[in-house]
Amino acid sequence: MQVQIFSLGMFQTNCFLLIDEVSKEAVVIDPGQDPDALLSAIEEQGLKVTGIWLTHAHLDHIAGVGEVKAATGAPILVHEIEKDWMTDPMLNGSGRYPEYFEPITGPAADQFVAAGDLLKLGDQSFEVRFTPGHTPGHVVYVTEGMVFAGDTLFNNGIGRTDMPGGSTAQLIKSIREQLYTLPGDTVVFCGHGPETTIGHERKHNWAVNDQTDLLR
Ligand SMILES: [Zn+2]
Ligand SMILES: [Zn+2]
């Protein structure tokens, strides 16, 4: 499987294009604002997009969903808790940045994902893990040697928890129980900024490691 990365829009949100080179099928994770470069890459490589998988429904991760859906017809997957976020600008946050974003009012999700679901791209399986904290319905997608982590864990950082539905204690618990339990050499593809590994963050991420008091 090949991973191509596009940093999109004013928040430079990482969108991932996962490609099964045998079948030419592909999955798009978190298509953000102005996805033209992504759409060109899909067309130039002759890919059939079989799913639009969302880690969570914040504006910067869903602003391009409408364009990708229109171009590919692929189903949109999100956790059910954030079902209404897809169509409500106050929940997805687009209503808070009227200068920069059109209010995002759709499209709605086609399918819901939940903890333990297995998704497929070609022969590759992905496990859905439930990781609330940055948002209440956040999920990550885990496959052999990799995790697509959205806004949970960053390279030496963690996701914000000061937005509606955020909880630092919950986020730390999600990272410890759902991410730090992966093998140390697992590559973490983050929603913003460069990749890291689980092993590096377990050792060096002070934002997680110094939060013992929150777990009481
Ligand atoms: Zn977010
Ligand atoms: Zn984000």
Automatic annotation (TrEMBL):
Cofactor: Zn(2+)
Residues in the signal sequence: none
Pfam families from the UniProt entry: Lactamase_B
Transmembrane parts of this sequence: none
SUPFAM superfamilies documented for this protein: Metallo-hydrolase/oxidoreductase
Keywords associated with the record: Hydrolase, Metal-binding, Zinc
MF terms (GO), sorted A to Z: hydrolase activity; metal ion binding
Xref: InterPro entries: MBL_Glyoxalase_II, Metallo-B-lactamas, RibonucZ/Hydroxyglut_hydro
CDD domains in the cross-refs: metallo-hydrolase-like_MBL-fold (cd06262)
Domain Metallo-beta-lactamase: 12-192
Name of this chain's protein: Glyoxylase-like metal-dependent hydrolase (Beta-lactamase superfamily II)
